[in-house]
Amino acid sequence: MWFTLLKLDNLEFTNAINNKNNQEMYDYRFVLRVLTSILEPPAELSSRKFVECNALSFAFVATSLKESSERALAYVILRRFLSHLSDLSVETFAEKSLFIYLIRFFKNSVDYPNQRIPH
Fold first, then answer.
1. 117 touches 64 (CB < 8 A)
2. Which of 59, 65, 70 is nearest to 106 (CA)?
3. What is the DSSP track for 13-61?
4. Domain that holds residue 100
5. Which residues span the membrane (predicted)?
6. Domain annotation covers residue 114
7. What is the mean pLDDT of the chain?
8. What is the DSSP track for 55-91?
9. How many CB atoms are located within 10 Å of the residue 57 CB?
């Protein structure tokens, strides 16, 4: 998923996806929909694993996509993950409060709904 993040919203991404032999790239539209469904409440999800496999990074990067519908999915993922982290029954780990703060800070920095964040 890391290579997909590096080439996201780039002409190279389109060329890489069209290359059938490239197994390092994922279709970001598919990944966004999968992440959205994984975070559907009540989700049995390891928050730490979600962060470690770059799913949270993927959502942040996707807020810079040109397509507003895909950007909206990224914001849904961030909102659902924040809700998931804020749930008291979710596992606790040392960085949990840091990720809650990061997402809230990002949320408060966005001026209008579905804003495209440059990278």
1. yes
2. 59
3. HHHHHH-TT--S---HHHHHHHHHHHTSSS----HHHHHHTTHHHHHHH
4. 2-109
5. none
6. no
7. 85
8. HHHHHHHHTT-SSHHHHHHHHHHHHHHHHHHH-TTS-
9. 13
